[in-house]
Every structure is written in C-alpha cells, then in structure tokens.
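So, who can interpret the following?
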Amino acid sequence: MIVNAITSAMPQFSSDEIDLAALFRALWKQKLLIVSVTLLVGLLAAAYAFLATPEYQVQSVLRPALIKDLDALNRSGVYELTPSQAMQRVGATLESYESRLEFFRANQGLFESLRRPSRSLEQTFESFNQQAFKMFQPDPKKTDNLSAYVGIQLTYPEGVDGVALVNGLVEYSLQRERERIAADLAVVIQNRLNQLELQTAAARARYEATKESRIAALLEADSLKRAQLQDELKALRQQLKTHRDNRIVQLDEAARIAMALGIAKPTTPSALGEGDRVVQGSVIRTEVNSQQIPLYFMGSEALEAERNALLQRRSDDFTEPRVAQIAKELQLLANNRQIEVLNKRENEDLFLKDLAIWREEAAHLRNLNVDVSTLKLVTVDQLAMQPLKPIKPKKALILALGLVLGGMLGLFVALIRNMLRRKPETFALVHAAREREPAYNL
C-alpha cells in the first residue's frame, strides 16, 4: 500500500522518544546563537539593574506609652485615655489620608523631587501615597506577640528624604493628636460646665416652685384652720346663747312655782314640810337625798336675781374656756412665721441641694490645667534611620535572572531554528515516496 511504501522509504523515528544525542548536536552547532541571546538579555538586565532609580525603605515603630505618661490627663477626672487607646489613635492618624495630605501640604519641600508639571499637588500625593506608605501591626490571630505596636513603613525613590519624611509624619501625627485631645478636653470641660449651669438653674427653678408650693400650702392650711375655728366659735357662741335662753326659761318657770309655794328664800323639801313644827333648842338637820332638788327651792328672790343677771348679759364667752382658746388660735393664725421666714431669705442658693458639690466641681473644672502639648501619647520604639542600601533594584538577582532567562530564550530560539531546518528534509522524503508509489502498486 501507499502508506506502507512511504513509511518504508522514510527514516525510522519513534513518536514517543527523542534522540537526545541528535538534539544536543543540533543545539551545539547553534552555541554561538544561544550565547549571543544569553549575553544580550543579560546586558539588558544589567542595564536595568544599574540604570533604574534605586528605591529605599525606612520604618518607624511606636509602642504604648507608660501609665505615668498619661497620669496627668487621667487624674483630671474629665478625660480618660489608656496607653493602648492612645497608641491606636496615633496609628489611626498616621494611616489617615487627610493627615498625610495636610503634612504633604505643610512640607512640600520634602516632596519636591516627586513633582511633575502635568500633575497637581493632590495628584502627586495620591500617586505617592498609594505606593509608598504601609502600616503594620501585630496579627491579632497570633498569640506569640510579646507586646502591642504600630508602625509605618515608607518605600521611596532616590532623591526623597525618606527619613525626614517618616519622622516628620510621626511627629506631625503626634502633635495633631495632642491638638485633638486638647480640643476634646476643652469641649468636654465646657459641656460639663454648661451642664452644671443647667443643673443649677433647674435646681433654682425647682426650689422656687417648691417654695411657692409650700407657701401656698401653708396659706391654704391657715385659711382652712381659720375658717374651722371661726365656724367652731360661731357654733359655740350659739350654743352658749341657747343655754342662756334655756336657763332664763327655766328660771322663769321655777320663780313662778316658788312664788306660788311662798318660797322666797332657798329651802329644802324637808324644811318646807316641817315649817309649822315648834322646835325647842338648836337643831341641826342633815338631808340625804339622791334626787336632784327642784330649782324652785332656791326661792323666788334668788331665781329673780339670776334671771335678771342673765337678761342683762351681753356675751357668754367668759363662761366657756374654749372660746378663749379659739381666740388665741385665731390670733396665732394672723401671722404665719414660716411664710415670713421663707419670704425673707436673702441667699436662697444656700438652700439648694447639691449646690455646694456643683460649685466645687465647676471650680475644679475652671482651674484644671493639663499641659497636653507635652503629653507623651506613645513611646517611639524605633525612629526612621538612613538605610545602608536600597531595596530595589536587587542587582545580583536581576543579573542572575537575566542570564537564566537569556539562556532559556537562546535555547528556545535554537530549538525553533532546528525544527524549521528539518521540515524541508521531511517534505523531500515524502515527495520521493510518492514518486515511487506506482512501482509499489505493480
């Protein structure tokens, strides 16, 4: 068959095996090409390594301040800040885009080498901020961290004073955080003073309302008591008058009986019965009687005298002690001394509850003097220092990678050339096999 003829005429190669010796000989013949490509790529890598702008890296590490450093602030009793909170606040300020931009605007001389005519100030800072700054702190998932810290790392090109930039940014952040704490402290103190004034005003209003309510209650109680006493006095006088009228009626009736019996002088029932007996010598009579002796035994003369006295009486008040007591109580109600004392108070603030405590606190707040400008919020564990060598470019690594990549590229080019050179030979063998195809068919 045709396929068998072509196969028998072609050189026998295995599809799964590579003739390494032939491949090595083919690559050895192109060793100059491989070396040239390797050197060319190595030269390009060396050019980049030695001509690229070096980049340096510096960092500053902050740790929590000591308790004594924040004691003056915490002892004020108004503002409390722990060392860890202070460090976190400073770290947040360091990370803040706004704080970095303000520092950039205030220290444009440190960024002069980064300025480009085609970029605005904000655009220059935006590009530099995204690539250069990096914040770092302990991983909360790890338990082997000895202490808390927060740090800032800066990667910058040659021509930028990275040490001054990092240290200046740290100091700027500390100062800005001190200003914020001072502002917060002033606001807290002022708010507390305002609250104390409101409490004092509310206490005064409450005192006035209580005072007026108490006076009204006293006046109402006095008025009620006075009305009750007057009603009692009126009823008592009416009762006394009724008793006097009744007594006059009783005396009239008894006088008529006495006149009818002829009793002119006071006598007794026994004496009246023995009036006609003749008694010799002195006789003393004693009468024991459990019954009340009728009034007419007093005699008409005594009864008339008492009746006339009662008719001439103009007031019965002296006959009842309660009348004098009521008059005394009414006289006492004429002037309420408690109301007079309440109205004569000159300094009513002295009677306000908790006013002394509030005034003491207000005086403490007004005289509070905490020097926040010297407050040590963090401990600078590591200041940024001038680096000994750049971190980029790494010349040795770039050269090594350049030579390795150059060698690989040279080998790849040599393999491609070897494959392209062998294709015509394969096509010639296939063509010769086709020309011999009729002879195989016969």
Remarks:
- The longest helix spans residues 162-261.
- The longest strand covers residues 55-64.
- Residues 1-16 have pLDDT under 50 and may be disordered.
- Residues 27-50+395-432 form one domain.
